[in-house]
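Cross-check.
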Amino acid sequence: MIAKGTCFPLFAYEVGRAIDLDAAARHVLLGDAARQTIKQKRRAPAYFEYRPAPLRVTRQGESHAIGLYRTAPGIEAVIYDFGAVSLSYAIAIDGPLAGLPALAEALWGNESLLADSRRHVEELLATLGDAVVRPRIADFVEDYAIFQIEAFTAACEAAALWTEQAHTVAQVLRAASRTLSHQETSDATALRLSFGPNDATIIDSDAAVLFDPEDDDVRAVIEFANIQLLEMRFLDQQLDNALDQAYDTLARRRDGFALPGQPGPDLRRLAQLQLDGAILFEQVTNALKLVGEQYLARVYTLLSRRFHLAEWDASITRKLQTIDGIYTKLTDRAASRRTEVLEWIIIVLITLELLISLAPFVRR
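Predicted model, tokenized:
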């Protein structure tokens, strides 16, 4: 029996090219104070080095029924400077541990929370106004669920979560109320770590189970990793679109007329996409530094493995290099075309000069 615990459903959205956090704070303070307030700029301790620190906003909302549970009316929004917003709900999970698999299954792709979170993001985007550069909400959302257990009614060690209660915890992590195989149970609870005998962090691809009364730091790392996965997916999609356009441009015989020394419209568009992708990639990968905190670094390492962030990183790097190669080919082709145009201009000028010089003889 859980004496005290909270489930935190997270929803991450891509909302713009970039966000001026100082301007965003001013817009929020000038907005409807009854609906949203600035909680604090950073929840993490000194060894969390955000560059810059995200802006945290608490918004009022409605309570939603999720199976036998209900969400609290308050919602916390975390705004990142690279154009992402993370929303988190809170659900009290006091009661039997065996009731959590049904809650996890109900949270999986929950249409009510998805619609409500998107509405909050749209309202927040309207409030931020010109603080958001090139605002647009991406079509997809990255969701995650954190089940934080602060205490059980009867004292027990954390190891019970992956021994006696392993199957129930696996059902929570895999959002499945049906019986799971031993292999599935083992895989779901494989990535775990503990700092002491009475705390544990078990991480899976769509959910995590935390057993610790003071796990705000771990939740902050999970929240950022979820945002990072969202940005990797978004950037990968943008690069796929850029590659399609680049291949089309490279396959065409001509990409429009451009004066000598000036890039064509396709080259300018491709250069802008290449620059935007490289900047976003650097912002996301360098936004968080864990300094001198080995436990949180290990948590982030496990999250990276579950989210396959290394594979996303390699894929994006490869696509950026491919776009760079295509841009170089297009630039060389444009330069060759300009050279040909200049050569024809020289030939025409020489011909005109010869005709002008021969004109007196033709008149005679």
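The chain has nine helices and 16 strands. The longest helix spans residues 309-363. Passed to J.P. for a second look.
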